[in-house]
Specification:
The complex is a heterodimer of chains A (about 40) and B (about 675).
Chain A lengths: L2 H22 L17
Chain B lengths: L3 H8 L4 H16 L11 H6 L18 H4 L8 H14 L3 H25 L4 H12 L5 H5 L4 H22 L3 H21 L6 H11 L12 H26 L12 H5 L1 H20 L18 H19 L5 H14 L21 H26 L15 H18 L5 H11 L4 H15 E2 L2 E2 L1 H17 L4 H13 L3 H14 L5 H11 L4 H6 L6 H15 L4 H14 L2 H14 L4 H13 L3 H10 L1 H4 L4 H15 L6 H6 L9
Antiparallel strand pairs in B: 1-2
Helix pairs in contact in B: 2-6, 2-7, 5-10, 6-7, 6-9, 7-17, 9-10, 9-12, 10-12, 11-12, 11-16, 14-15, 15-16, 16-17, 19-20, 20-21, 20-22, 21-22, 22-23, 23-24, 24-26, 24-27, 26-27, 27-28, 27-29, 28-29, 29-30, 29-32
Classes of the chains: A mainly alpha (about 40), B mainly alpha (about 675).
Chain lengths: ~40, ~675
């Protein structure tokens, strides 16, 4: 595979995943009010 | 203008190494947003509030004695992980971005080692790159990569794959002497891998299956000399035994304790847990192939062997196993993928009790053989489709390895997996988001509701103001958690924390005491709360409980119990310092503030407590010196504390004995702290 084509494909893949990541998720991000929490396990 | 040399280099075919670096760079870029995420889940317990990791506290030898368990060193049965964490805290501090960066680097190392191992086993360049891309962007890995404390899975996988590489080198080397050297290296790496997490323990058995099925062109050599294979596999097994011996030395058996109620099998028996585990494993397979239903939390539940869902799942897994064995000659790679995955699932299959029956991170290492087979299969499918299309279109046959259309099925799969990985990773951006999502996706989880309630109750109070709306949300979450599991300590902690926000000291004391009664570990912070609450209990309530004695005695007895059991807890030491400060024992309070500071230097509450103590003792010079030296850290203090300290320092400066020069030259409250 040629260099330019390979780099272009990588960039397209990264952009597609970024867009896909936004489309696939429905998480509403909320920042913590505290910096200490009890552990979970 | 582009020179001729430049133009020709742009059109030169890329080397395998350059393409591998490109794939790794793509994986790194996809996960790069994680560096802005916080520390969540167990990160507080294993990293931020783990005083054992701090310089001057960490002792490697302690991790090989029962004292590690007695002192409640977090994850004491994982010496490789604890040592790695200590090294990372020494090098990077506890900055979340640095630790997320380290997790991404570990994941890239695993991908790089996988590529190296596949090439050594004779897998062609295209299939190797395809496997690495699929594994690197598999959605089910989001949890293991996004949560810093789950890097145990990444570390075990990296060291385990390195052990496999060394073992394969040992088998392939013609002469015995260097072969034994590689074997010993494999043993050491395998012991370290299992010392990070026992998920790497099935690797010797997987090597045997690899030699039996010979799925790749380079695998035939593995079975050429059976004595050599037996010796190397034996050395790998010895590595596993060494790690198990460490666990036995520290805990004398299961690291979670023989009667831990957090292990469902202890409550309802092993059989229903194993029946549920059958369904869980079919679910894992689905989530690896189609990443739907991923979650940060799953509810531990038993199942009946004769339930239709259990029988169906059992039949599917049994059919897969039979097909893998029956078709091993025709499709050795697919057979290896199924058998390798099943073997790799054994440590987390609930045969041995775990506090979580199911977690996405458990599939990090087991997904390796499936990713390789899936990637190779998708590439083969792409090539077949291209050939068919060309035949139908009456075109010339494609030039091998150059037709990008053959990569289309794999590319679609990788893009789909990567997109879900990015979406899933966002759940772990903060504890509030994490537990909100966990309660939404697993509404039957007492843990998720309790930890969400704890987040709410912490946010409900700002200074003297209590936000009734947030407090009501906290109470609803705590009560739901309590209804879901009345014998769980977290709902009690949730209600206790809410009672503190409401300044209801009696209810807070009762809930925290109940939490300590129910909990088997991690009691340092409830004990810290109890010791402080004991001083504020109403006299009428204390008269009804004469067995508790007076407030001072009660508070001291909690501290005695806590400080003996949790010598590395910074929060407990800071709380003990505050209690002794209130009781007027200044010397003991100062010692405890200094110890708390050495266990967690980044905690502003400890520094503020030390400054207040110095002011109470009339040492304005030490108070000012510490206030100035720790200005950056104290910027994070709540406004009420900052205002109070500023006023008190200003008042101290009006004293006739105050000297600015003296204050500047004073060593401060934490003169000997790091």
């Amino acid at each position: 595979m040629r260099r330019n084509k390979f780099y272009a494909l990588l960039v397209i893949a990264a952009l597609s995943i970024a867009i896909g990541g936004v489309a696939c998720g429905d998480t509403v991000e909320d920042l913590d009010k505290l910096d200490e929490t009890y552990g979970a396990t | 203008m582009v020179s001729e040399g430049q133009a020709s280099s742009e059109h030169e075919p890329l080397s395998y190494r350059a393409r591998l670096v490109g794939v790794l760079a793509l994986i790194a870029v996809v996960f790069l947003p994680l560096v802005r995420y916080g520390l969540v889940y167990d990160d507080g317990w294993t990293l931020r509030s783990n005083g054992f990791l701090r310089p001057g506290q960490f002792e490697l030898a302690l991790l090989f004695s029962p004292e590690a368990a007695a002192r409640h060193v977090p994850d004491a049965f994982r010496p490789t992980l604890v040592s790695f964490d200590a090294l990372s805290v020494w090098a990077l501090g506890v900055e979340p971005w640095a630790h997320h960066g380290l997790s991404i680097l570990l994941h890239l190392s695993v991908c790089g080692l996988l590529a190296r191992l596949l090439r050594r086993l004779g897998v062609d360049e295209g299939s190797t790159l395809a496997s690495v891309a699929l594994f690197g962007l598999l959605a089910i890995h989001a949890e293991a990569i996004a949560v810093v404390s789950f890097r145990e899975d990444l570390l075990a996988a990296a060291l385990g794959l390195a052990a496999m590489l060394a073992a394969v080198r040992g088998i392939q080397t013609p002469r015995w002497r260097p072969a034994l050297g590689w074997g010993l290296a494999a043993m050491g790496l395998q012991a370290l891998a299992c010392g990070a997490k026992l998920s790497a323990a099935p690797l010797p058995a997987i090597l045997l299956v690899l030699a039996w099925l010979r799925p790749g062109p380079g695998c035939a050599v593995l079975a050429r000399d059976r004595t050599r294979l037996a010796v190397i596999v034996g050395l790998l097994a010895l590595g596993v035994a060494l790690a198990l011996a460490q666990t036995w030395l520290v805990h004398g058996g299961s690291p979670y304790g023989p009667d831990n109620p957090r292990i469902l099998a202890q409550r309802i028996g092993l059989s229903p847990v194993l029946a549920a585990s059958v369904k869980i494993h079919l679910g894992y397979l689905q989530q690896i192939l189609v990443p739907l239903g991923l979650s940060p939390e799953y509810v531990d539940r038993g199942a009946g062997w004769f339930e239709p869902a259990t029988m169906l799942a059992g039949a599917c897994l049994a059919a897969l196993l039979v097909a893998a064995i029956a078709l091993r000659r025709r499709w050795p790679l697919a057979s290896f993928a199924v058998l390798g995955w099943m073997l790799a699932c054994v440590p987390t299959s609930n045969l041995v009790g775990l506090p979580n029956m199911r977690a996405d991170r458990f599939m990090y290492l087991p997904s390796v053989p499936l990713c390789v087979a899936l990637a190779v299969g998708l590439l083969a499918l792409g090539r077949r489709l291209v050939t068919k299309l060309d035949q139908e279109g009456d075109l010339d046959p494609p030039r091998a390895g150059e037709d990008l259309r053959a990569w289309l099925p794999l590319a679609l799969c990788v893009l789909m997996q990567g997109s879900f990985a990015v979406a899933e990773a966002r759940v772990y951006v903060s504890n509030t988001t994490l537990w909100h999502e966990a309660a939404r996706r697993a509404p039957g989880s007492a843990r998720a509701h309790a930890l969400l309630g704890l987040e709410y109750s912490g946010a409900a109070r700002a200074g003297d103001h209590l936000d009734d709306e947030i407090a009501a949300k906290a109470e609803a979450a705590c009560r739901t958690a309590q209804q879901l599991d009345p014998l769980y300590e977290l709902p009690q902690l949730c209600l206790g924390s809410l009672a503190i926000s409401r300044k209801d000291w009696t209810a807070a004391y009762e809930h925290h005491a109940r939490a300590v009664e129910l909990s088997v570990d991690r009691n340092d912070r409830p004990i810290a709360a109890l010791a402080q609450l004991a001083l504020d209990l109403p006299s009428a309530w204390l008269r009804q409980h004469p067995e508790l004695g007076d407030r001072r005695h009660l508070s001291r007895s909690w501290l005695e119990r806590g400080l003996g059991a949790y010598p590395y807890s910074p929060e407990l030491h800071a709380a003990a310092a505050r209690v002794y400060h209130r009781l007027g024992d200044a010397e003991r309070a100062m010692q405890l503030y200094q110890r708390a500071r050495s266990l967690r230097p980044d905690r502003w509450e400890t520094v503020a407590g030390g400054v207040e103590l110095a002011l109470d003792l009339g040492d304005a010079a030490a108070a000012h010196r510490t206030w100035w030296a720790e200005a950056k850290l104290l910027e994070r203090a709540d406004p009420a504390t900052r205002t109070r300290l500023t006023r008190r320092l200003a008042a101290a400066r009006t004293s006739p004995g105050f000297s600015l020069l003296h204050s500047l030259l004073d060593p401060g409250v934490f003169a000997h702290a790091p």
